[in-house]
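Researcher: Excuse me, tokens okay?
***
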Amino acid sequence: MLQSLHIKNFALIEDLEMICRDGLNVLTGETGAGKSILIDALNILLGDKAGPGFIRTGAEKALIEGMFIAKPAVNSWLKNQELIDEGTDQETLSVVREISKTGSRFRINGILVNQASVNELKPMLIHVHAQHEARTLLSGQAQLNIIDALADQSHEKALAKMASLYANKIDKQKELDALRISEEERMRRLDFARFQLQELEGANLSDASEDEQLEKKHTVLANVSQLDLAASVAYQALTGETGGDGISSADEQARANAQATMNAIDALQTAVSSLDRASKLDGDLSSIINSLKEALALLEEAKDNIRHYKSKLEVDPEILQQLQDRLAQLATIKRKYGPDLAQAIERRNVLAQEINKLENAQVQANEVEQQLQNIKEKLADTSETISKTRKKLAKEFSQRIITELSQLGMERCQFEIVFEQLPEIGSSGFDSIEFMISPNPGQALLPMAKIASGGELSRIMLAIKSIVVGIDDAPTIIFDEIDAGLSGRILQTMRDKLAKLAQLRQVLCITHQPVIAAAAGNHLFVEKQHAKETTIVKIKALEGEERVKSLATMVSGQENAAVALDLAQALINQRI
């Protein structure tokens, strides 16, 4: 339910707040006073298009804020959208739209959201009905939705089953179309897949990191001479020996440096021996000796490791060539199926599945075709069940519409719902329906959309809303001058229906009719005020004598005419 609407710098509105109540709320005022601007602002707040043209002249931005009572369905939606915590329920809901010269932003409870979210929320908050909207609202699909909404849970389950079957049908049809390719195309794709798979299998891919490991080996083999020299120099520095093959003659300076220096192990052994003798004179040298002995043990271990390392170094051009060939092969594989070996391995697995599918395409196509046929049979059965329920509901609905319209001055109106079967079953079945009406005797039944009279459309809309209000989720219904062109007893009947409707839902109604305005529990008067070279729209809640005078003005054009005042008070007293 709408509690309040705050509008700032929007169109002709400088700063305005509309407070709404339960029941029937009416907006009155002279033609052009700005009543429809309020409805436009509410629609724009809840997702309609808006641009800089709506910003009041001289302002930088426009702001619209609506406060609503949050019903359980709204709270559930907020939780699904992660706008409130799972264990939280909101009593009120704030929706804000800010329109600037560069765009607009939406906020729900202070959180930025996109327009799609607000559009999704709107039907849970309000339904707006105006004469110009009737043709859209009463499209074939909308009419079908009205009939379906009148049904029980078994019909809802059938509709859900239909939607699921239809989705399965679409998926199976796509799968079948993919399998039913031409033989020439199938063989072309099969040959290409086999070629790719053969190339990948020929590469013997098993380790996604093989290329990285081979790169390391290649680096070692390609630089074995430098590595051997470095190891030999290090070995000779430790021991004074060449370590097998000795130091390569390629680096005479390194050999000379190693030979000119006492080797590290001998040096440490000399140090240990010297301090060992001295420790007999000073026991504090023991810790230093222990450290030197540990260092000596580490150097002995390093010496053995260097010797072992040198023994593994191979200068084998054949092995180096094999490594280079393998790296080149892997590079080709990565370029064609990569960018890395992991993706190439995955591609190999996918190709194997694709080849199996192409080789067995006909068998699979036959299986899928049978599955598709089974789904179509279930669709036909479910569509038939849904159609029977709809026709029964349509008959009952037609009788109720005729009764409602007769109370609204269309006593001799004929109303029927015509069913046609679509050539193909859709997600909601095979029914196509059309609301047909003959407002006057002798007039042929015509589709609702072809009715010319706005007044007749307004009464039909009110009749439909009176029937479906119990199943309508929106807590607020807005009627924009649906009483235009009506008078007398018919107008009184419409007043009564609006008042009864307002006992179940909050109703906002723009009207120029005092009969309708007098039935409201909340009478809001809209007017334009002129100051210097500006025009602004104001709104005021009317109570007591002020309200009687306003109704009197609507009756006679004079707020203090005695007869008009008496009539206005009488209309208020007629409220049901």
The two ends are 22 Å apart (CA to CA). Residues 210-335 form one domain.
